[in-house]
Amino acid sequence: MHHTRLDTAMAPAGLMRAALREAVRWCEGRVAFQRRLIDQPLMRMVLADMALDWEGALALGLRVAAAFDDPGQKAFARVGVALAKFLSNKRCVQVTAEAMECLGGMGYVEETPMPMLYREAPLNGIWEGSGNVICLDILRSLTREPEARAALEAELDAAKGFDAGYDVVLERHRTLWPGLPADAEARLFAERTATLLTASVLLRTVPGPVAESYVRGRLDPERGGRWGRRAGWTWERSWRRRGDGSRSGEAGGMEGNGRSAAPFGFGYVGRRTAMADDREERIRERAYRLWEQEGRPHGRHEDHWHQASQEVGDELFEQQGATDSDERRGALDGGLLPQDALVAPGGPAGSGLAGLGMMEEPEEERAHRQQG
After folding, report:
1. pLDDT 10s digits, 96-118
2. Coiled coil located at which positions (predicted)?
């Protein structure tokens, strides 16, 4: 097993999160047709749909990371990391491009971080094996290592009974490929297997509405090929609190895994934590000053952004009394996952959402997570 491959499987989640945050922040301030973009139903649909891929990549990456730490799961880790790397990197390029489109022309120019994220998005899909190499490696692992195939099947079976739609798609998948596919079908097999594996992890680890939405949005062929095209979804019902404070997932009798319908990031759009807002503003101001000090050069500004991120990160950690700022500095870089999202590898992906700067975790949800 190669830990570098695990890096390339996890990094897309951080890039998607960074691109998504830029899109959300822009939509919070941009007004069109007398309403903020974030209040437009179609834009909310697109953003929430994109967020599913981020949530899935994070959950699957943490599950594979947990297998790397467990010698008894070496067989699953071997094939799981390849599946995660393939799917997450393919999704990352698409999500980053869609997030750039949310910003319009401003997302294309160098005054925002989006061009940097867009250039970075394909890198991890090429590093440590491009798409074809990874897909053929998956087939080779399943052919040469019967224990890897058994571990993968067990992981897929672990979510049976959680969602009827998942069970149907899993059965179709096994009917289509009772054995392993020919090399020419390796990509199709890898994509569908990785998507099923992601759904399995989500159904077992995250709040019901998020997992159910992933199943409907990624396993249902009616979804279409782009975000926001799935007809019949009611994101407001699934991911927002009702006016009376109760959860729509609970009140509406949604079938699921029996866990509480915890809010997802876009149910709380606009409730970014004060710390996240302050951090981002300080980084932007510092980057602008660095740019001015160098005579306002034309072209790429990644160096200014990264230097500002590092300086602000060190300052914040010093204020908190941290002594390992070099090691933890990446938590404040817009392109990396925050440390609290990785506290418990393999744990519920939703447990780290409050640290992503996109939502503030409600007290009752924090208490529920700590108890369970």
Report:
1. 999 999 999 989 888 889 999 99
2. none
Which residue ranges make up each domain of the chain? 3-233, 274-332
The one-letter amino acid at 77: A
Rounded Cα–Cα distance for residues 58 and 348 (Å): 10
Calpha distance 215→316 (Å, rounded): 39
pLDDT of residue 57: 96
Question: Is 119:223 a contact under the CB 8 Å cutoff?
Answer: no
Reported residue count of the chain is: 372
Q: How far apart are CA 265 and CA 245, in angstroms?
A: 17
Phi, psi torsion values for 124, nearest 5 degrees:
-70, -20
Segment 169-195, tens digit of pLDDT: 999 999 999 889 999 999 999 999 999
Query: For residues 279 and 316, what is the distance between their CA atoms, to the nearest angstrom?
Result: 8
First-to-final CA distance of the chain: 32
Specify the DSSP class assigned to residue 215.
I
Whether 261 and 248 have beta carbons less than 8 Å apart is answered as yes
Q: For residue 21, give the H/E element and its range.
A: helix 3-29
Torsion, CA 46, CA 48, CA 51, CA 53, rounded to 10: -70
Distance of CA 201 to the CA centre of its chain: 13
Helix/strand/coil for 31: strand
Query: Considering only CA atoms, which of 179, 165, 162, 177 is closest in space to residue 221?
Result: 165
d(CA 171, CA 183): 22
Taking Cα atoms as reference points, which of 184, 155, 189 lies closest to residue 173?
189
The answer to whether 287 and 304 are in contact (CB under 8 A) is yes
211 close to 203: Cβ distance less than 8 angstroms: yes
- CATH architecture of the domain 3-233 equals Up-down Bundle (1.20)
197-250, pLDDT tens digit by residue? 999 999 999 878 889 899 988 987 665 556 665 544 444 433 333 233 333 333
Residues 6+ apart with CB under 8 A from 263: 207, 239, 240, 241, 247, 359, 362, 365
Check if the beta carbon of residue 172 is closer than 8 Å to that of residue 267. no
Three-state SS at 336: coil
